[in-house]
Amino acid sequence: MTKIAITGSGSGIGAATAEALRAAGHQVIGIDIRNADLNADLSTADGRAQAVAGVLARCDGVLDGLVLCAGLGVQVEPPARIVSVNYFGAVELLDGLLPALSKGSKPAAVVVSSVASAHLSWEDNRLAAVLEAGDEAAVAGVLESAGEKRGNFAYAGSKNAVTVAVRKRAVDWGRAGVRLNTVAPGVTETPLLQASLDDPRYSKAVRDFVAPLGRSAKPQEIAAVILFLLSTQAGFVHGAQFFVDGGIDAMMRPTRF
Ligand code: NAD
């Protein structure tokens, strides 16, 4: 049995992943804002430190897998909170738990990014400088400059940055013997999706975002790819992003990959 920690374990893709991992015989440490094995608010530095300390205590400093799934959608106010959970809630757990993962058995980590990570380039990501500097307090000011589109910008900018953060860690993590990848889901039937459909500011754009396969994903379809990436079958997959999006990235950017 292996020990795997997972954030966002209470709902949607995280809940489907935790269920599939438990069914496969893994010991899961679920982290969420409430009703989890470990309750922590990943939108704050204290909550993130509490999550890292709580996982280390529960796994005795040896962790085999990590899935970072917790996230907030475009409609959440204030939008700086989206960035705090989606970006800082991922990178601070990656960095805090690498020493424990490096002692694990065939260890691997997966961060749930989004197809939205490819909606802008790192060079055009106005959040890039403050996120690389770890300056969470400066995020709200940068988002203000995006005006009415700040929800979209907070979401896509934080997802772009978290994918870049994973890719930039490929060398150090590879040397530590820990594989690290992202999955980039497209539209997936979860409470996060429903909340954006229920918000008149975003519902049309979300409805119009239709994949070539002509439907949205079930959370279990994203969980299946996460389980593959954690498994030894993906033993040479490292620093990669897997789009699980029904073909929408290929449709939007056929010449870029
Ligand atoms: P969801 O709302 O069903 O689940 C998200 C989970 O994150 C919830 O359990 C929630 O409580 C937790 N969370 C939120 N804020 C938190 C905080 N401050 N501290 C601790 N936990 C917190 O959403 P989902 O669709 O399953 O999203 C999972 C991941 O997939 C997110 O990172 C999301 O951005 C990404 N994603 C989702 C879609 C989609 O269409 N649903 C598409 C692309 C990417």
Automatic annotation (TrEMBL):
<dbReference type="InterPro" id="IPR036291">
    <property type="entry name" value="NAD(P)-bd_dom_sf"/>
</dbReference>
<dbReference type="GO" id="GO:0016491">
    <property type="term" value="F:oxidoreductase activity"/>
</dbReference>
<comment type="similarity">
    <text>Belongs to the short-chain dehydrogenases/reductases (SDR) family.</text>
</comment>
<dbReference type="Pfam" id="PF13561">
    <property type="entry name" value="adh_short_C2"/>
</dbReference>
<keyword id="KW-0560">Oxidoreductase</keyword>
<dbReference type="InterPro" id="IPR002347">
    <property type="entry name" value="SDR_fam"/>
</dbReference>
<protein>
    <submittedName>
        <fullName>SDR family oxidoreductase</fullName>
    </submittedName>
</protein>
<dbReference type="Pfam" id="PF00106">
    <property type="entry name" value="adh_short"/>
</dbReference>
